[in-house]
Amino acid sequence: MTKFDIWTELKLEIVRDYAKEYSKILKANHFHHVYIDAFAGPGLHISKLSGEFIQGSPLNALLIDPPFKEFFFIDIDSEKTDHLRRLVGARKNAHVFPGDCNTVLMRDVFPQVRWEDRRRGLCLLDPYGVHMEWKVVAEAGKLKTIDMFLNFPVMDMNRNSLWRQPEKVRPSDVHRLNSFWGDDSWRKIVYRTEQTLFGPEEEKQENAVVVNAFCRRLKDVAGFKYVARPLPMRNSRRAVVYYLLFASQKLVAKNILEYIFQKYEKRGMREWPSQALSGPNPPGTP
């Protein structure tokens, strides 16, 4: 069973808190609102901090009150989906899909969240690395019905693709990043030519520059009207593991989410021991 680091536990609390407010608003406005988890996992995990079992995002979502109308849980690992299916039980409104979420979302899930059917969806895209395809993000923006959480896996990017010597990166890792970003425009953002005493040299930009560019892309290319300030999720050495992003078509959604982000930032050092995740947001974030 998967062991959860403290930053993952924090993310689960953030998503749960937002899902509660989201469900209240959508129910009050008589929408058929659904919860979508593209990397759902087995449903139960072990906390690295306490050693106790904790509920994953799917079980948290099933307990939201007022409840969502439907649930769509996806994972590429069939053992995890089998375990999750046993936990979900006989609920007819909870659908568990084994398979690649990039295919399942486009083929089976997003067509059921159409604007004209008065359907709306809260979608959690939480890849373990650069395993999400831009076409999915773009479709979520195009639908105009999706509020989206997205794990921006900057540590995985730095380990495998965003090297200071880009010519040494494996072609397969370049291809993965192109698929995640949607094209290769990230190159012009990540690498800038700087004048030095020894002539022009290519310099790799900081993480904040990269994530800010992706946030602009969520607006300008995917078509989300509002993107919250990225929340940096840090490990015990204060290194950013990933950024938690949020995008929506509604200003009220962004405002609610940023209030939740601020609440957890303030908790930070006071309630989360040496692995505390609070800290300044990257400069210039939207």
What does this structure look like?
The structure is a single chain. This protein is α/β, with parallel strands linked by helices and 286 residues long. It is built from 10 helices and 13 strands. It has helices at 6-28, 57-62, 78-88, 101-109, 134-143, 154-160, 171-181, 186-190, 207-220, 251-271; strands at 3-4, 32-37, 44-47, 53-55, 70-75, 94-98, 119-125, 146-152, 191-196, 199-204, 226-227, 231-234, 240-248. The strands form 3 sheets. Strands 2, 5, 6, 7, 8, 11, 12 and 13 form an 8-stranded mixed beta sheet that branches. A 3-stranded mixed beta sheet has the order 1-3-4. Strand 7, helix 5 and strand 8 form a beta-alpha-beta unit. Helix 1 packs antiparallel against helix 10 (251-271).
Number of strands: 13
| Proportion of residues in β-strands | 15-25%
Question: What's the CATH superfamily, by name?
Answer: Vaccinia Virus protein VP39
Average pLDDT score: 87
Oligomer: single chain
The helix content is 40-55%
- CATH level 3 topology: Rossmann fold
Outline:
The chain is an alpha/beta fold.
Q: Helices, strands, pairings?
A:
Blueprint: E1 3-4, H1 6-28, E2 32-37, E3 44-47, E4 53-55, H2 57-62, E5 70-75, H3 78-88, E6 94-98, H4 101-109, E7 119-125, H5 134-143, E8 146-152, H6 154-160, H7 171-181, H8 186-190, E9 191-196, E10 199-204, H9 207-220, E11 226-227, E12 231-234, E13 240-248, H10 251-271
Q: Which characteristics define this entry?
A:
10 helices, Rossmann fold, alpha/beta, globular, 41% helix
